[in-house]
Amino acid sequence: MKTYENALQIIADNYAIIGKERQELAAMVIDKYKSSTEPFDILGVAYAYLWQGAKFRQDAISYFEKYLSEYSDVELNCHCIKRWSIYSDLATLYEKEYKYQEAILCLHKCIAIDDHSNAADYIRIGDILVKEDISKAEDFYLKILNDPKLSKYKRQFAYALDEVIQKKNRGYVYRPRNKKQ
Description:
Layout: H1 7-13, H2 20-33, H3 39-52, H4 57-71, H5 83-96, H6 100-113, H7 119-132, H8 134-145, H9 154-169
């Protein structure tokens, strides 16, 4: 078996595995590195908890937040995990925990990291706003449709706005799923 310097290397080298093996690897990473104070161990544990699923979302969020609050300036030299993906993954976790404003803040950081080069980040913000207040989503799309810096995404934003308007006209109201006991 390969020798690893930190938890993040283990996660990165096994990023493509799925199923039971992924969860077993995640459990091993958590067990071995959860008490570490090293930045790449903390980030590796965050991803390990992410891989463990819904029951461990809060743990994943805590480790991502710890990494970002204490070590966001540390050079990240990882082939499959970039600063953008950390914020993107944390945004997904926040959204699944109904922490919409935190998710939106993470997506704005993704936008800044990508220098406004990824329309999907904007669409994700719009999707979250639909869950909060469909009128806010409509206003958001109208605002970005008129932003000259984002004109290359006009078609994607117009399509997303059209979907929001159709939902609004149908009386759509987001209803979260009941949490499993």
